[in-house]
TrEMBL record:
Chain ranges of the XdhC Rossmann domain: 171-311
Domain XdhC- CoxI: 16-83
Source organism: Granulibacter bethesdensis
Lineage: Bacteria, Pseudomonadati, Pseudomonadota, Alphaproteobacteria, Acetobacterales
Name of protein: CoxI protein
TM ranges: none
InterPro entries: MoCofactor_Util/Proc (IPR052698), XdhC_CoxI (IPR003777), XdhC_Rossmann_dom (IPR027051)
Pfam families for this protein: XdhC_C (PF13478), XdhC_CoxI (PF02625)
């Protein structure tokens, strides 16, 4: 599940409520077959008809919106189930048929501090949090969370527990043109981006409006930022004085992705330098270079998109993440 999508719904619901609207929340609690939205998917519905998020590919949103309005009118939660037959699957958007069970509940005003708690716990650097909801009473509570655990949804009898996490991070070394484009694309994809470079003149809010800017030597900054299993590191500067120390520092972390921009020849020379510094072959195997999926384009946007696509593929364990040169 895309944790960032659900956080957007939570933040939006809170903004609406702060603006005076009443809001109902719809949550997928179980799905079968080809339902395109997994358990934990959220949709918020305001009393004026605004919606955020989704609980299907579009085939049941209108019905869920009606249920949400009814929940707001009665103040009571409800659990609804929708099924699509194989014969009608293409017509309504579930390509192979399927079923989905959805919790629809009004968000009580006294739960706004809990929404604030989720938003704060999932800010960059936060530890994440769990939201526990009773399907019997409608009660809500927050619970501490192992922030390095994967996003999860657990339904036990009449209790739904959903975990929320801070956005995954991308640390970029080198305030270059590709980094400008990559930070914009990655931010839209839900990543929290940081650009590292010792050259302060290149690290400006005008060039990088979507990123956190860290002026300093990359190896020192990476050690300070402590990449974890929800962090990707990509070196982009083409300067061995910046890139090599950054890679050495990244290899001592749990970063789920470590990549380096450059041609095959440049990457081979880079690996040779790292070997000379005592890096093992198994550690070198963690460095993806030339970084990015082979999408064919050569422009700056094409390169940034290919890097983001590879980071996403690795993060989600997609088959595309298997590099042909390592297969």
């Amino acid at each position: 599940m895309h944790n960032e999508d659900e956080l957007h719904v939570i933040r939006t619901a809170l903004e609406w409520m702060e603006g005076g609207a009443d809001v109902a929340l719809a949550t997928v609690i179980h799905s079968w077959g080809s339902s395109p939205r997994p358990p934990g998917s959220l949709m918020a519905v305001a009393d004026d008809g605004r919606i955020a998020g989704s609980v299907s590919g579009g085939c049941v949103e209108a019905a869920v919106m009606e249920e949400a309005m009814a929940a707001l009118a009665t103040g009571c939660l409800r659990v609804v189930e929708y099924g699509v037959t194989q014969e009608r699957a293409w017509e309504v958007g579930l390509a192979c048929g399927g079923k989905v069970r959805i919790l629809v509940e009004p968000v009580q005003r006294n739960y706004m501090p809990l929404l604030h708690g989720i938003r704060e716990a999932c800010a960059p650097g936060g530890k994440g949090i769990g939201l526990i909801r009773s399907l019997k009473t409608g009660g809500w509570a927050l619970s501490p969370l192992d922030w390095q655990a994967g996003s999860s949804v657990l339904l036990e009898e009449q209790q739904l527990t959903q975990s929320f996490h801070p956005p995954a991070r991308i640390l970029m070394v080198g305030a270059v043109h590709v980094a400008q484009t990559l930070s914009g694309l990655a931010t839209k994809a839900g990543f929290a981006c940081t650009v590292i470079d010792p050259r302060a003149a290149l690290l400006t809010a005008e060039r990088f409006p979507d990123a956190r800017l860290c002026v300093g030597w990359p190896d020192e900054m990476i050690k300070e930022l402590k990449p974890d299993i929800r962090t990707a590191v990509i070196v982009l500067s083409h300067d061995p004085k910046l890139d090599d120390p950054a890679l050495l520092a990244a290899l001592h972390t749990q970063a789920f992705y470590i990549g380096a921009l450059g041609s095959a020849r440049t990457h081979a020379a880079r690996l040779a330098r790292l070997r000379d510094q005592g890096v093992s072959e198994s550690a070198l195997g963690r460095v993806r270079g030339p970084a990015g999926l082979q999408l064919g384009g050569r422009g700056v946007t094409d390169i940034a998109l290919s890097i983001l696509a590879e980071i996403s593929a690795v993060r989600h364990g997609a088959a595309l993440a298997i590099r042909q040169d390592a297969a």
